[in-house]
Amino acid sequence: MPALRTSTRRPTYPLAHAARRKPRRIPLVLRFYKGAIHNIILLPVILHCAFAALVVYLNRHVTGSISVPSTIIPSLSIVVGLMLVFRNSTSYDRFWSGRNCLTTIGTCVRNLVRMILVGAHGKEGKMLAEAERRDTEKIVRVLIAVLYAIKHNLRAEFNIPPASLTAEAEDAEPATRPGYMSRRNSIENGLDTAQSEYVSLLPEGLRGYEDQGLGLPLQLTVLVEGYIRRGFERGSFHAPQASQMTVQVNNLVDAYGRMETIRTTPIPVAHLIHQKQVLALYTCILPLAIVDGYKWWAIPTVAIVAFTLYGIEGIGMQLEDPFGYDKNDIKMDGIIEDTRQEVMVLLEEWKMGAQGKSGMFN
Question: What string of DSSP letters covers 203-272?
Answer without folding.
Answer: PTT--B-GGGT--HHHHHHHHHHHHHHHHHHTTSS-HHHHHHHHHHHHHHHHHHHHHHHHHH-PPPHHHH
